[in-house]
Design a protein that fits this description.
heterodimer, A: about 290 residues, mainly alpha, about 55% helix, about 5% strand, B: about 375 residues, alpha+beta, Rieske Iron-sulfur Protein, 3 domains, 4-stranded antiparallel beta sheet, 11 helices, 14 strands
Chain lengths: ~290, ~375
């Protein structure tokens, strides 16, 4: 107490000095700023900044790697003959970028019936920057969080329920193109519905959300986020399904099975026929009965 | 054939005559023919193969009885152990008999070369003329040529035998008209489905109603009428109106609908535009070819493809057939929005869904729309 009284006394002695007002103002300002920094939602302020920075860096990447087809502002480009070079990216959202670039589909190696999956060109850091830039062009679906798409966050009982519900939704909405087990299948004019069994849960979620290439979108108003996660749980359960029937041959139905039967089955038969008709070993000796 | 030395490919015919017939080469014997030890060995080989087959058969029965099947059963290389062993043992049993028989024939059975000359496939002239004569004599004796009355009545009576078949086939079940008139349950018969005016369009599996704002452009929903989930405007219907069992399955399979939201500017057909809500169109999910469920849709082209026979329908143009064996366009369900803002049907499908049947008429989409407008006008206008 005595210490406090002494210091207050000392302060009050300086109170009337002309500089006191300025010092007080500076202290008050620093205090307000400091308090704001402590109590305000500082993380969002910080990430806003980095989000804008990311978008700016993403724009630089975009101008180098994407603008030749999608336009310098992501507005989409058409060739002189009216053919679409790259669609407009305004409003496709970060999820579309994360899917297309993350699975290596973009940048596209060559135009064709189907954009091929390949080793990604950009690392996740650059993908995030590109996504931030494209997301800044117009509102669209954002990249889902792990909790939204990863079925490993379920408890055992929850997963069983989810697999049942997700299975029904999958069989109703997805089976037509992607096969009952998610093996994928053929589409018109050289396209195909990709295999889902080697697709990461995050990308399955993003594909439903954004409808890549000629796939329909299954937005959150169509299939809710919980249902999407259930669908992924079903696909994951298909991955762990042992092949009780023996060779699944890609699970593609009559095409691969027929090919196998014609090539391997007939091949074995031809092998047997050759063996049957092949020359048997002959002896130089005469048969005893004939010699006599 | 003579050898040609000067590189030309001509056959020098005159030299052929000069060559003597070489005849068959001298027969050489197999080791098993001349060596009793080899013969014994071959005999043992064949017997061993047959023995292996027997062993496989025994193992087949043993594995059938002992190995547990189904989910969580034992596995071999990730495959069901039961399937693998059953396949291998039964395959082995058959294969070893086959290999044994062939080995027997190659090593032990008679090894003599034979020459058999080919003979003509047709019968001799004599046989042929005898057969024709016998046929003529038979016709002459029956007098079918001379007695047209008998001939004609026979033809007539045999032809009439087709009628019982037609009558019996016709009575195999109630005709479409019978079903429609008696209507044992809502939407009975081939002409109708359970869709009614103001019935909500709900998502299949979960049964939740849909607002136009829920869907983004490019969204596809597999939809069903709300009554399938036993509800009307979100409220459970009375017990006696709930569809159950076979009735439910039939109603569901006929009423299955594909809901698609496209850019309204993409729609090229006035009828389709009139029956859509903000670019949301609804079509029957049942192919008009042989009734497979279709939902392979290409978002970018609005082409709906049937996986069974590749019939393709343009959903922006009244479900017009643009490829494949389907003979008629895909029926479109006229949509509107109810006072709570949910998507509802304006009524039943304006034309029968699914594949063709005898009594069905085929109209153009414009005619269908005109008929539908008159019909709904009569129902509501008076």
């Amino acid at each position: 107490m005595r210490l406090l009284n002494r210091s207050v006394g000392r302060l009050s002695r300086h109170r009337r000095r002309p500089l006191a007002g300025v010092v007080l103002l500076l202290v008050a300002l620093a205090l307000t700023g400091g308090l704001y920094a402590v109590f305000s939602p500082s993380s969002s302020a910080e990430s806003d900044q980095t989000q804008a920075e990311k978008a700016a860096q993403g724009r630089q990447l975009f101008l180098v790697g994407c603008a030749s087809c999608h336009g310098q502002n992501g507005e989409g480009l058409k060739a002189q003959d009216g053919k679409l070079l790259g669609p407009s990216l305004i409003g496709v959202g970060a999820a579309a970028v994360d899917f297309q670039v993350g699975t290596g589909r973009m940048p596209m190696a060559q135009p064709g019936a189907q954009v091929q999956k390949k080793r990604p060109t950009y690392d996740q850091d650059d993908i995030d920057k590109l996504a931030a830039y494209v997301a800044s062009l117009g509102p669209g679906p954002s990249v889902p969080t792990k909790n939204q798409y990863d079925p490993s966050t379920y408890t055992d009982a929850q997963r069983k329920q989810a697999v049942t519900l997700g299975g029904q939704i999958f069989l109703t909405n997805c089976t037509a193109c992607h096969n009952f087990t998610g093996e994928g299948g053929a589409m018109p004019r050289g396209g195909y519905a990709p295999k889902l069994l080697d697709t990461k849960p995050k990308y399955i979620y993003e594909a439903m959300l954004t409808g890549p290439q000629s796939m329909d979108t299954f937005s959150n108003g169509n299939i809710s986020p919980q249902e999407k996660k259930a669908v992924i749980a079903y696909v994951e359960s298909m991955k762990n399904q042992p092949g009780y029937g023996g060779f699944s041959l890609g699970g593609l139905g009559p095409v691969s099975e027929g090919l196998f039967a014609w090539v391997v089955g007939l091949g074995i038969l031809v092998g047997f026929a050759v063996w049957i008709a092949a020359h048997t070993t002959r002896s130089s000796k005469k048969k005893k009965g004939l010699e006599a | 054939m003579s050898e040609v030395h000067d590189g030309s490919h001509e056959i020098e015919a005159h030299t052929d005559a000069l060559l003597p017939d070489p005849g068959l080469p001298e027969h050489t014997w197999r080791p098993t023919d001349v060596d009793p030890k080899a013969e014994k060995r071959a005999e043992r080989q064949v017997a061993t193969l047959f023995g292996l087959s027997a062993l496989c058969t025994v193992l087949f029965v043993v594995s059938y009885v002992t190995i547990r099947t189904g989910v969580n059963g034992p596995t071999i290389l990730g495959w069901g152990a039961s399937n693998v062993t059953l396949g291998l043992t039964l395959g082995g049993a058959l294969l070893f008999i086959g290999i044994g028989v062939i080995q027997w024939a190659r090593k032990l059975m008679a090894d003599v070369e034979m020459v058999e000359l080919r003979h003509p496939a047709s019968s001799s002239e004599e046989d042929r003329s005898m057969t024709v004569a016998a046929l003529q004599a038979g016709l002459e004796e029956s007098g079918i040529g001379r007695r047209p009355l008998i001939r004609n009545t026979l033809i007539g009576s045999v032809a009439l035998l087709g009628v019982p078949a037609v009558v019996m086939l016709k009575d195999l079940g109630p005709t479409n008209k019978d079903v429609t008139e008696s209507a044992p349950y809502p939407g009975a018969g081939l002409e109708h489905t359970v869709w009614r005016s103001q019935m909500r369009v709900v998502r299949d599996v979960v049964g939740t109603p849909i607002r136009p704002g829920d869907l983004e452009i490019g969204d596809l929903v597999n939809a069903e009428p709300e009554i399938i989930f036993g509800k009307n405007k979100g409220v459970p219907v009375p017990e006696d109106q709930v569809l159950e069992g076979a009735d439910l399955q039939i109603a569901k399979s006929k009423a299955a609908t594909v809901l698609l939201r496209m850019d309204p500017d993409d729609i090229v057909n006035d009828v389709t535009r009139n029956w859509s809500v903000n670019g949301i169109v609804a079509y029957s999910k049942i192919c008009t070819h042989v009734g497979c469920p279709i939902s392979l849709n290409e978002r970018t082209t609005h082409h709906l493809l049937c996986p069974c026979h590749q019939s393709t329908f343009d959903l922006a143009d009244g479900g017009k057939v643009i490829f494949g064996p389907a003979g008629r366009h895909l029926p479109q369900l006229p949509l509107t929005v109810d006072d709570e803002g949910f998507l509802v049907a304006q009524g039943d499908y304006p034309e029968p869904v699914g594949p063709s049947y005898w009594e069905r008429n085929t109209y153009s989409l414009e005619q269908v729309a005109k008929n539908y407008a008159t019909k709904t006008g009569e129902e509501t206008g008076q």
